[in-house]
């Protein structure tokens, strides 16, 4: 195991990061399908991502998560790396088809045993486990039965959540139901870019509603089963949506994007209703959100923490390059406007100021629930030296700029209580395969050798400094 973490932080004493309090949570995040591998071991059955990866052209280079980072077999080594970074929290997800093969019936003891060992390994090193119950790996059998557009999947999710909680709830205090329901619903069912690869906006909207319903049902089950206080939450991926100009068309495009990307999820979670303008926009497309009596009160089950994943902000225009406000099918134009800004290897604009704006806006529009940044990070074109070390100064700068954005948001009144870097390891980056690297620790996929990058060193030293452990 390569753990040369000797380089000092370059952050100055006047850095806004230093205003973060000693109680601030510091962590890293991963997800099951992206790192675990072992897709056919110990009773695990296929997920929608195992299936999607076999679709020709769906994933870059035809790659898959069969081995990924081999975390299933190397877990103690990876936990040791987290401990050496001095972090207090590890956010990981549980693979539904590993714990409940097929998505129905009793728990699989061999699958649960892995997470049981992981939790004990973390606690033994003084690291809090932060469980995400769903990070996109739906059992394929449930997709065959209709997937998330099918209402029954929400109930199956609540059953699964209860199984995991029964096994780990005596030691795990923080539980996230879903990771990024927008991605599951829209990229998976509306746009076809993620598993299961459907292209049907109506199915995407139904999936979004049933994901939220599943969240609420699971939250109620876990709260009822908890013998001691727990922290319940959900993680959403959010971006700012600003108009490119002050024109009515641009402002409406930004409104519509914000509605489908942010308010469609947060309004029912916090206010118990869907936004009227989004409902009207969907109705104009012939789409109805499949709400049944009582659904919204279930979705609005009180939570204790809101997980925020942030990577970029966007500008929107309501006219296309030809100056038209309607596309060829008569729909309103909602076009992302590219700016002359630095970008990551994902071609995402780097706009930390928008991160501050977002967090302040969330604290204003959805008050009363503390936030934790459950993902923030960047892919860059890493170039390792002969020893596998990556001097990723671009990633160091990204993390530093975004932590300063968090600090500024706190100074403006946003109740942000923690930050988890995405990601601990280079990993399987969904439709991009292994082409994009987000890790602060490099993984050589041929040898599975782990080498902390300069960003890992910087992150470790920053955490030490903020805690007063210079």
Describe the secondary structure blueprint for this structure.
Blueprint: E1 25-29, H1 32-35, H2 48-52, H3 71-84, E2 89-93, H4 96-99, H5 109-124, E3 128-134, H6 140-144, H7 152-168, E4 174-179, H8 181-190, H9 201-225, E5 231-237, E6 241-243, H10 248-271, H11 276-284, H12 295-299, E7 305-309, E8 314-317, E9 335-337, H13 352-365, E10 371-375, H14 393-411, E11 416-422, E12 441-444, E13 449-452, H15 454-466
Parallel strand pairs: 1-2, 1-11, 2-3, 3-4, 4-5, 5-7, 6-8, 7-10, 10-11
Antiparallel strand pairs: 8-9, 12-13
Helix pairs in contact: 3-5, 7-9, 8-9, 13-14, 14-15
* Amount of beta strand: 5-15%
The CATH superfamily name is Glycosidases
Instruction: Give the spatial strand order of the biggest sheet.
Output: 1-2-3-4-5-7-10-11
- Got a strand count? 13
The N- to C-terminal Cα distance equals 25 Å
Overall structural domain count: 1
Mean pLDDT: 96
The helix tally amounts to: 15
Indicate the low-confidence ranges by residue numbers.
Answer: 1-12
Largest sheet: 8 strands, parallel, barrel
What name does CATH use for the topology?
TIM Barrel
| Computed Rg | 21 Å
Envelope shape: globular
Helix content: 25-40%
Examine the secondary-structure arrangement and name the CATH architecture. Alpha-Beta Barrel
CATH top level class name: Alpha Beta
Q: Structural class, please? A: alpha/beta
EC number: 3.2.1.21
InterPro entries: GH, GH_1_N_CS, Glyco_hydro_1, Glyco_hydro_1_AS, Glyco_hydro_1_beta-glucosidase
Catalytic activity: Hydrolysis of terminal, non-reducing beta-D-glucosyl residues with release of beta-D-glucose
Family: Belongs to the glycosyl hydrolase 1 family.
